[in-house]
Write a structure and sequence with these properties.
The complex is a heterodimer of chains A (177) and B (120). Chain A contains 6 helices and 7 strands. With 177 residues, chain A is of the alpha/beta class. Chain A has a 7-stranded mixed β-sheet. The termini of chain A are far apart. With 120 residues, chain B is mainly alpha-helical. Chain B folds into 2 domains: 65 residues, Helicase, Ruva Protein, domain 3 (Orthogonal Bundle), CATH 1.10.8; 30 residues. Chain B contains 6 helices and no strands. The chains are: A alpha/beta (177), B mainly alpha (120).
């Protein structure tokens, strides 16, 4: 009888573990903080890629309704994949797309833009990565949709844009207008 | 023999240059040891050499230079990345079990041992 109980307990344990692990498979490993808690500091300083002037995020955000902040680098391969989506978003004309060039060399960054096109209205450089951390970013590529009026982050995408995220972005822009 | 001795002292003195080149201040090390590197698995910001961690260390140094204290730096990072970034979680309703469970197990174990001893 005792042997039986042990066996049943073991089988039960294995079944429970199986379902817990199965559930874990579908969960994403990436932890991302709550959006409502991540207010952005609009006063960080950064230099432009094409001139030596300094600017703040406040100045970068213009009178369009939304800004899209995209963190990219020429050495980042997924950034090449998402570049067509950015060009496409720019052609919609409703977004002010700001590029943050993350830990990159100036020459390579300019080459990248020349080769793939420029979807950005302004590009600032972030050679140490500190500005990206001020925005609460993890690395490249990362994209933040900002409501210019309320100055809040509406949406945050870690990793390259794809068809799904692109459709979602388009929908948000349409609905909020 | 004299040359050997001289050579040895030279190398020995040379090793001290390491200390002067170690530019990370102790404060940065101290703080970054308490921070979880979010894109690495199971490493602290102090241990990691990833881009994220390297930037984080620069940021911490900047904040120290600005005159912020430890508390303010932790709070700043928590507001950006959430509670997950610090190794020492606050006590709230989500982490209550985490804090209380060891205590319960400790008391439970104590009772078990006590009973076993008193039966004997």
């Amino acid at each position: 009888m005792i042997k039986n109980i042990k066996l049943i307990a073991l089988v039960f344990l294995i079944i429970i573990s199986f379902f817990i692990l199965l559930k874990g498979l579908n969960k994403t490993n990436n932890y991302s903080p709550n959006l409502n808690s991540s207010n952005i500091d609009f006063n960080f300083k950064a230099k432009f890629l094409y001139s030596n002037e300094e600017t703040t995020l406040n100045e970068l955000i213009n009178d369009k309704d939304f800004s899209l902040i995209n963190i990219w680098a020429s050495w980042c391969l997924p950034c090449r994949d998402e570049h067509p989506y950015l060009l496409n978003l720019n052609s919609l004309g409703k977004l002010n797309i700001i590029g943050i060039n993350y830990k990159d060399s100036e020459v390579n960054a300019k080459k990248f833009i020349k080769e793939f096109g420029n979807p950005y209205s302004k590009i600032v450089v972030d050679p140490t990565g500190v500005n990206s951390i001020e925005l609460g970013a993890y690395g490249v590529p990362e994209t933040l949709l900002i409501n210019n009026k309320t100055q809040t982050i509406l949406k945050k995408y870690i990793g390259p844009l794809d068809n799904e995220k692109f459709a979602e972005l388009k929908k948000i822009i349409k609905n909020e207008n | 023999m004299k040359i050997k001795f001289f050579f040895f002292t030279f190398i020995y003195l040379l090793s001290f240059f390491n200390f002067s080149y170690a530019d990370n201040s102790e404060k940065v090390d101290q703080i970054s040891k308490n921070l979880r590197c979010l894109i690495c698995q199971g490493q602290s910001v102090y241990d990691s050499q990833s881009d994220f961690a390297l930037s984080m260390k620069i940021l911490i140094q900047n904040k120290i230079d600005e005159g912020k204290n430890d508390e303010q730096i932790y709070n700043f990072l928590k507001s950006k990345y959430g509670e997950w970034i610090v190794y020492d979680p606050e006590i709230n309703k989500n982490t209550l079990l985490l804090w209380v469970l060891p205590l319960i197990l400790f008391v439970f174990g104590g009772i078990l041992i006590f009973r076993k001893v008193s039966i004997k």
